[in-house]
Amino acid sequence: MKIISPYYEFITEPDGEKILETIEKCGRTCYKSEDRITEGSSRKFAAMILKGGHESVLEHEKISLRIICDRGVTHEIVRHRLASYSQESTRYCNYSKDKFGNELTFIRPPFWAEDDECMKLWEAAMAEAEKAYFALLAAGAKPEEARDVLPTSVKTEIAVTMNIREWRHFFKLRTSERAHPQIREIAVPMLDDFKKRIPVLFDDIDVSGT
């Protein structure tokens, strides 16, 4: 049994300046103001778009990430409709195989310290789930059958593609103090990363979701 913390990685490395340039080229079609495109004008244009609430223009650019988390978190992620998803399948993945290290991987919950009694109870429950899963496989169950004993905490990977407008919506909801702690655990640093990589487009979103 392996226990890890959640993390993410970019599938498509975003070029912030090029994203802004594309948004400007597309957005200026609305005003027929392409003649006003100059070096550096895309930042000012993007700020104007956001201030005016003309966010449909942001849909012309997209970003893809791979998120490694527990299945409970992915249940919240996939509620965002304007996106594309490809997720690790417990139907087809046999975790007794060598490529999985012959073990199950679980996502460490952020609620408890390592020496907390609740954490000890959780670890014991995960060990029992792994034992039951492998026992079912040994008894002849298929992976798609044995998965019925897998808990929400089992690690999964999901490839997520959203346009810029939907990523903004995602961050507004999932970095809010009202969001579930486990999705917030990954969404907050992700938002900070987006702000560093892509100018202007996420600067107005803070970790309270406003």
Helix-strand blueprint:
Elements: E1 2-4, E2 7-10, H1 16-31, H2 41-52, E3 62-70, H3 71-77, E4 83-87, E5 105-107, H4 117-138, H5 143-146, E6 155-163, H6 164-174, H7 181-197
Parallel strand pairs: 1-5
Antiparallel strand pairs: 2-3, 3-6, 4-6
Account of the 3D structure:
This protein has 210 residues and is α+β, with helices and mostly antiparallel strands. It has one domain (1-14, 61-201): Gyrase A, domain 2 (2-Layer Sandwich), CATH 3.30.1360. The protein has 7 helices and 6 strands, in the order ββααβαββααβαα. It has a 4-stranded antiparallel beta sheet with strand order 2-3-6-4. A two-stranded parallel ribbon has the order 1-5. Helix 1 (16-31) crosses helix 2 (41-52). The longest helix has 22 residues, at 117-138. The chain starts with a strand and ends in a 13-residue tail after the last helix.
> What structural class is derived from the secondary structure elements?
alpha+beta
What low-confidence regions span 5 or more consecutive residues with pLDDT below 50?
Answer: none
Strand content: 15-25%
Q: Can you write the helix and strand succession as a string?
A: EEHHEHEEHHEHH
How far apart lie the N and C ends? 39 Å
Helix content: 40-55%
**Which CATH class?**
Alpha Beta
- Count of helices? 7
Mean pLDDT: 96
The CATH topology is Gyrase A, domain 2
Q: Tell me the radius of gyration.
A: 21 Å
Shape: elongated
How many β-strands, per DSSP? 6
The CATH architecture can be named as 2-Layer Sandwich
**Count of spatially separate domains:** 1
Main sheet: strand order: 2-3-6-4
Largest sheet: number of strands, sense, barrel closure? 4 strands, antiparallel
